[in-house]
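Q&A log
Question type: sequence-to-structure
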Amino acid sequence: MTETHRKSPSGQPEDVDPHERDESGASEDAALALPSHVASSGALDRLVETARGYARAAASENTLKAYGKDWAHFARWCRMRGTDPLPASPQLIGLYIADLAAPGGKTPALSVSSIERRLSGLAWGYTQRGERLDRKDRHIGSVLAGIRRKHARPPAQKEAILPEDLRDMLATLPHDLRGLRDRAILLIGFAGGLRRSEIVSLDHGKDDTPDSGGWIEILEDGILVTLRGKTGWREVEIARGSSEQTCPVHALTQWLHYARIDFGPLFVAVSRNGLKATAERLSDKHVARLIKTCAREAGLRPDLPEAERVRLFSGHSLRAGLASSAEVDERYVQKQLGHASAEMTRRYQRRRDRFRVNLTKAAGL
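Response status: OK
Response body:
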C-alpha cells in the first residue's frame, strides 16, 4: 500500500496519523457522552447530540479549526520525538514552545503571538480530552517569559485606508451587480468599523439563518447593525453619508434592490454571468481579496513595489481607517469598534495628533 504524505507547518513531509484527523469535532464528541452508569435511550441520545451542538458553538468555526491544527501539529511533534501528548506535561510543553521559538535547520521561527496562540490551542485540546494544562506552571511560564523578552517585537500594523483612499478604491469598481455589492462591502466595513468576518456574517433580518453573526435594520437615519460578539451582543450605528457616492446606506440599499435580497445572508456570491445574486454567503476571504485588489488598482502607496503594497492592506485596514480619520471624541470610536479599552482603539489610529497635550510644560518645565 502506498503511504500518503503531507508537509507539516515546519515544512517537513510527515505521515498522516489517522488519530489526528478531524480534531475539531472528534474530541468534543468523545468528551460529551452519557455517564457509564446511565442506560442509553432515544431521549438521552438526542440530548447528547444537542449538547455536542452547543459545545461546538462555544467558539467560532475558524477558531475550532485553528485549535484542531494546533493540536495536530503538537501530536506530530511528540510522535517524531518518541513521546505522547497525553497526559499533559508542562515540561514537554516548555520544550515544544522553545522549539517553536528557536527551531533547528531552515524551519522558520514562530512569532511570540503565534506561540501564544499555539498554547491556547493546546489548552483547548487538553480540556476536550479531560485534562488540564496549567500555563502558569514554571516550566511553561518561565520559558514563555524568556521568549517574550528575547523575541517580542511591536506588532506589524496594516496600512489604514483613509477616506481619500476609499474614494479611489470605489472608483475602480464596475457599475454592475458585483460592483454594487463590493461598494456596499467597503463602505459598510469602513463606516461600521467592522471586521471582515462580521461583514459577511450579517443577515438582512433577525434570525434569518442558523450561521448568522448578526443582522441589519435600515432606518430613516441610517443602518442599525446588531452583532454577536465574544462577550455578547452589541449594536453599531452606521449613519448616512454626505453624498450618494460615499454613503454606506445608499450603497447597501442599491445592492439589496438590484440583487433582490429581502431575507437571508446580506452579502452573497453573484452568478457567473453577473446578472443574478445566489444564495451562497460570501467568505471573509472575499473581503480581504477585495481590499487588496482595489488598493492595488487604485495605486495606493505608489512609492512601494506592488507586492509590498498589496501586503500592506487587509481587512483591518478599514477599521484602522475609521479610527484614524474620524474627528470625534475617542470614546465614540471605541464604541463603534467594540473595544473594551481606549488603549486598544489607539492601536488602530495611524495618524494620531501626538503631543497635543504637553504634560512637560503643564508640569512647569
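Response note: The two ends are 80 Å apart (CA to CA).
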